Amino acid sequence: MELHNHHISNNSCNSNPVSFEISGNKSQRSVRHKSVQFEDTFLLREENPRLIYINDPRKTNDKYEFSGNEIRTSKYTIITFLPKNLFIQFHRLAYLYFLAIAALNQLPPLAVFGRTVSLFPLLFVLCVTAIKDGYEDWRRHRSDRNENNRESLVEQSGGFRLKKWKKIQAGEVLKILANETIPCDMVLLGTSDPSGLAYIQTMNLDGESNLKTRYARQETALAVSEGGTISGLVRCEQPNRNIYEFTANMEFKGQKFSLSQSNIVLRGCQLKNTEWIIGVVVYAGQETKAMLNSAASPSKRSKLESYMNRETLWLSIFLFVMCLVVALGMGLWLLRHNEELDTLPYYRKRYFTHGRDDGKRNKYYGIPMETFFSFLSSIIVFQIMIPISLYITMELVRLGQSYFMIEDKDMYDSSSCSRFQCRSLNINEDLGQIRYVFSDKTGTLTENKMEFQRASVCGKNYGGSLLMGDPLQEKNIAVTQRRWKLKSEVSVDSALMALLHKDVVGDERIAAHEFFLTLAACNTVIPILTHGTSSSCINGEFHEDVEAIDYQGESPDEQALVSAASAYGYTLFERTSGHIVVDVNGEKLRLDVLGLHEFDSVRKRMSVVIRFPNGAVKVLVKGADTSMFSILANGTEMDDHITNATQSHLSEYSSQGLRTLVVAARDLTETELETWQCRYEDASTSLTDRVVKLRQTAALIESNLKLLGATAIEDKLQDGVPEAIEALRQAGIKVWVLTGDKQETAISIGLSCKLLTSDMQQIIINGNSEDECRNLLADAKSKYGVKSSNGRNQNLKCNKNAETGNLKVPVNTKSSNVPQWYAGKEDGVPSVPLALIIDGNSLVYILEKDLESEVRTLCFPLHKGFCSLVICIF
């Protein structure tokens, strides 16, 4: 991101590049991050990049290859509505059957009912469904029209004028004001903040309510602040669906610099806490990342409707056989009475009556045709076997269901003044047939509000005696400079606070200092100062120079760590593109940011390279213990003692359900710095494999680190989560949770939210190879008496209820009283409830075809008992 895009002279690069590679086991290399899953598609981007000429849309789209900014989410148009809607409706086999019956009834020899009357039932059902679908699509058209006719400020003739969204083109320069929605994907050129900072809310994209930070390059931000027309060239990748990556370069006033995800704002986001931003459009309309991820509205069909299609097919086959038998009997009867047909009623060839009809010939078509007509007439007579009234009733019932669901007072949220919404009437009945619930943990089961709880510094555990409020006041520590007041209070440990303010300089004091300095510097959090002062009482005296400070960032974990550092006296209060300023117990410390490697799920860590005022350069790193301990330096016996103590503390924190991180640092030599700077500059400006190259560059400095300590953060469960999960389990619904925590933390959270219970047998799969995972699965199957899938096929066929997951449980039954399944009652089913826990490395191998069947065999009890699945991908 912009914070670490520091210009470095290429003169420092060695003419002979140093070869290097990332070491790691096979399992680590197999894991792919969500932002890396599109890497293979980036390989050809540099060969055919998209060229965006800033403030020159005509030159940008001179070949008319870029789409406009008009969007369409509707399914039908006036021309396509009738044929497309009929095509979708006739996916119901019963409708084809009724259409065939109506067509047969139009033939004179087969007309049982009136020709027009026979069409009414089918036309009624088709019209009701078409009106419903048409109304839903009309609402989409209305939403599209309102969206396309919204207006934004576009630079035209040297000034910003309002222009409708649908007329915005790639290459135009837009100005977005506070609380407005972004109309298209834009590269930031400048903001109202002098440092080029902007805050956006991405709830419409990823559902996250916390604000994200985006940055304008200092080169363009300075030009925007000076005024005048901005011109330049943006060379970016072709439109793609990946909202977590953006690879581009910009040529501006003879300079060429890189652009990343932190420099682009996407359509649908909202500008928050920023007066205005100015940016250039790179993707518009259907080519924006939001629209590329917005699939066309599917034609939803419920399970009941699919079941009725199958039943209709079988009834049609049975009806065909019945009519065939009737026709065959008619043919045999006509053959037997062939000589008597002249005198038999309805089959005599000539009338023998007095009057006008005397001698008139009867409509007789011969035995074969009479047999065929008998077959068709039988279809009309037996058509009631598939009643069309059933489908009419279903449509009316769905309409009534939607009314009662919308008006249900128990589903009204008074805090947001919102009620239940029924957006599709076709799947109402599926709400009562849910068998599985897949859930994320953070922000879904938890509040996503992190609180700093424990810390391990230099092998010692802190956090047992926490103090609230003003920690310096509690310890009677004098403060000579400005004090900072956090928006939310942070609990601190008195012993750790005393250590930080010792006058004696020792290894433990230095480690604690670097520990909290890393928490304050190794992040992407932006400090927000509240202008004006407030009074505070320190040592019995009132001070009027206390200034309020708040932190905004993409990660709540980082905000909690930075707030904790501030509570202990290390306050980050200024951040620009090239430096940060930290108030260390009243003394301002300015640190130059030379580069920052963001966190990803392959490295599982984050690092920042900073230069101190005395010229020393350090790399500060924080990350998961699984990735940090392997890159620590081989130190003395004391270092080994600290490492073992820290690992013990981490296990203790994880067992308490806390989120843990390991903190480390080391000094960089001039040679290491020059080598890293050269590679970093090349990697950050590359249009191909930028993520891989930056990861390889980070490996140069993320090694031989000195362990400083570890942190533990608490993310509390939301109110009612344990009760909700218990109710789901009582209803026979299986709950599967995906979390990024450590295995111990995931188990602890699972117990606290009642996803796991004490009577469950935990099957833990945490192998580092395919063979190890296979052995763990085989041991679990043999231990709990689960047979292989081949030996259990007969049980699957015989037990329909188990296959569909239907389990009857009384409403007032508690989970502890729910009857369990015993091996003596049914072969191949364990006698105790099971919980399957899979870590991220094992999941890579388990998803392979060879082991997938084994996992299905092991998960078979999940269909029958009250079992759970926890997947840890950390």
UniProtKB/TrEMBL annotation:
Catalytic activity line of the entry: ATP + H2O + phospholipidSide 1 = ADP + phosphate + phospholipidSide 2
Pfam families found in the cross-reference section: Cation_ATPase, PhoLip_ATPase_N
Localization per Swiss-Prot or TrEMBL: Membrane
Stretches assigned to the P-type ATPase N-terminal domain: 52-117
Residue numbers binding ATP: 440-442, 558, 599, 622, 659, 739-741
Cofactors named for this entry: Mg(2+)
Enzyme Commission (EC) number: 7.6.2.1
Membrane-spanning ranges: 313-335, 372-392
Family: Belongs to the cation transport ATPase (P-type) (TC 3.A.3) family. Type IV subfamily.
PANTHER family: PHOSPHOLIPID-TRANSPORTING ATPASE, PROBABLE PHOSPHOLIPID-TRANSPORTING ATPASE
Protein name listed in UniProt: Phospholipid-transporting ATPase
Organism of derivation: Carya illinoinensis
